Amino acid sequence: MRKFRKYTATALVAMMVAGMTMSGYQPADVSASQESEYIIVTKDKKSMKTVESKYNTMIDTQEQNTDFLKDENVLVSKMTAKEAEDAYRKETETYQLTLTFRGDESETIAGKDFDYTYQDDGEIESFLKKQNPFLWMKYWFEQSKYELKRGIVYDEDKLEKKLNNLSHLSEESQEAPVDAKIVYKEDQFVVKKEKQGTTIDTDALGKAVEQALKEGEETLNVEQANGYVKPAVTKDSELLAKQKKQLNELANVQVTYELPEGEKVLNGNTVKKWLNLDEDGNYSLDQDKMNAKIKKYVKKLAEEFDTLGKERPFHTTSGLDVTVTGGNYGWKIDQKAEIKVLKKNIKNQQQVTRKPEYSQEELYTDNHGLGDTYIEVNLTEQHLYYYKKGKVVLDTPFVSGRMTKDRFTPPGVYFLTYKQKDRILRGRPNASGQPSYQSHVNYWMPFNGGIGLHDASWRSSFGGKIYIYSGSHGCINLPGKKAAKIYEMINKETPIVCVYNNGYKLHG
Predict the structure, then answer these.
(1) Is 389:455 a contact under the CB 8 Å cutoff?
(2) Exposed end of the chain (fewer CB within 10 Å): N or C?
(3) Which long-range contacts (CB under 8 A, 24 or more apart) does 307-314 make?
(4) Model confidence over 154-169: pLDDT tens digits?
(5) Distance between CA atoms of 197 and 229, rounded to whole angstroms?
(6) 41 has pLDDT over 50
(7) Rounded (10°) angle between helices 335-347 and 287-305
(8) CA distances from 187 to 3, 330, 498 (A)
(9) Chain centroid to CA 26: how far?
(10) With 60 as the cut, is the pLDDT of residue 139 above it?
(11) Which strands sit side by side in the sheet containing 254-259, from one edge to the other?
(12) Residue 240 has pLDDT above 90, yes or no
């Protein structure tokens, strides 16, 4: 069942009597007056004032002239009641309402699409019958104006559907407004102005359209009708002004961390979250809470940027791109020291650029921290490559740890810990408390605890598959001459990359 809404559209009506004469002020013939009765209907009160002004000019000049009725705002003139009713009805048949949106964009809805119709209630006829034709003097010298209510009906459901189908009400056209807010900009907190969106307030628009239909308006400015959803908070907010002042006193800090992969900035936008905010919107400092937040932040910073033991891309000499995990080489933030320095930065509201407090650093920033000088210990190929300034200056086969759980050589990236000549290497104590082995080496270069590079005079051959079943206890066994050369060339902290091309398999 269709739902119809009835409106009474109000128009101003001027009732005038013609057939009057100015000379001698002779009364007009009653029948003549009745035959010449007519009404003037305008769209709104403003339009009626225009007609009034022209009519008064006519009176002042004592001219019987009805040209003043030829105005675009006059809807009905010099008509009988029936003619006026028919004119109203015809007008509704072609009625259109144009909605103007932001950006000078507009859409039009036609009355015929939602059954916008004039309802004849006989009001004009009743109005004319009430007029007293003998009061011609009154109508000559004083214009009579009346409120005429025109009955309008339309289908509510069809109107709603028509409005919902407007392109400006589509989902993709709805851009939500953005509230004014406080941001950290150029070393201080400032208020960022709100942003008007394009989201339509459907309730407000619906009411505005209903009023326009009631008044018979042909245009509707959606913004002037408050048809857009407005930002809840504007730049003039007293609360924002108060918060800006408080934040500039408590959290106006910026620490720019210089990191191997670029920069990371800690500024007031983060620090303000570490403050207390009460129900009234007031910021305050709770030192215990602040300390806990700083500790948590530094821990997360270390987790994100420490490279010690983490996966590291590596391009092998044989041309493979692999990933190496493990080792003792890499960046490591000294969290305790960093917390202390960061507390000072925040307390003193400093704007600084600095490195984190490190307990360990990589030697280089390029080539994933390896630079152009390092040693590749390829455990799959059983071959060592010494790179210096990007070129292989020495290579040699070797024997690594036997492929058992207790003896294999772990992969990873390591620092050369130190180097030493003429060293006795001893194994773990056996059941009798004696070393499981003792071996004299001329060149000792440890990098992973008790694992290192060294000569192995007891071996006559190197490379191949020896390591799988007859390997060392984890060390890299080198030919004597090659070990001597490496010892002379290598420096403390040189990166040593131990890599298996395709992983490894243990057999015991």
Answers:
(1) no
(2) N
(3) 307/260, 307/331, 307/362, 307/369, 308/332, 308/360, 309/412, 312/368, 312/369, 312/413, 313/368, 314/368, 314/370, 314/497, 314/499
(4) 999 999 999 999 999 9
(5) 8
(6) yes
(7) 130
(8) 61, 33, 46
(9) 81
(10) no
(11) 262-267, 254-259, 351-354
(12) yes
Q: Are 111 and 88 in contact (CB under 8 A)?
A: no
How crowded is residue 260: how many other Cβ atoms within 10 Å of its Cβ?
16
CA quadruple 323, 326, 330, 336: dihedral positive or negative? Answer: positive
What pLDDT, on the 0 to 100 scale, is given for residue 30? 31
CA separation (Å) from 304 to 272, 297, 310?
A: 22, 11, 11
Tokens at 370, concatenated: 């390896």
36, pLDDT greater than 70: no
DSSP string, 15-63: EE--S---GGGPPPPHHHHHHT-EEEEESSHHHHHHHHHHHHHHHHTT-
Contact of 218 with 96, CB cutoff 8 Å: yes
d(CA 267, CA 378): 45
Other CB atoms within a 10 A radius of the CB of residue 489 amount to: 14
Strand partners, 181: 192
Nearest CA-CA partner of 49 in 18, 71, 64: 71
Domain 239-311+331-360 has CATH 3.10.20.800: yes
Where exactly are the structural domains of the chain? Answer: 4-93+116-155, 239-311+331-360, 372-499
What are the angstrom distances between the C-alpha of 501 and each of 161, 382, 386, 470, 472? 67, 11, 17, 20, 20
**Sequence letter at residue 217:** E
Give the total residue count for the chain: 508
**Separation of alpha carbons 17 and 126, rounded Å:** 17
Tokens describing residue 186: 């150029």
